[in-house]
Amino acid sequence: MTEPVLVALLFADKVIVEDKNKKKTIVGTFTRFYSDKFPVSFPTWYIYAAATNISGDHSFSLILVLEKEMQVVYPINGKLKVEDPRAVIELIFPVDQAIFPAAGEYTLTFNIDGKQIGSRMLEIVQLEQRGFGEVIQ
Description:
Order of helices and strands: EEEEEEEEEEE
CATH architecture: Sandwich
CATH superfamily: Immunoglobulins
Radius of gyration: 17 Å
Structural class: mainly beta
Helix content: under 10%
Shape: globular
CATH topology: Immunoglobulin-like
């Protein structure tokens, strides 16, 4: 197998797929969440991953890990079948029920056949409460 090439790895509020032409609209990309309490779960959000230079049958995984503890927070596993290595495969996953145990840096890795082809950080920021419900960063 030739080396897979990462095209994109994004966190987004929503990914819309058009019915007729399958074009994707990626809405509200981000790199951090904020919370004043832990553990915390956020409303449904999405992971968009795209890669090329792949052909044949392969396994893949996207794994979100709390770095300081090396704790897996959200694993996604699956299989790919790609006919044309020039094609860009696009994977879209809604994320719900992910529980973040603490503030900190979380890393999402994208692996094909067990080999990492890319990663990115998601930061979960602790908000502090001040009197009368005022919240600050």
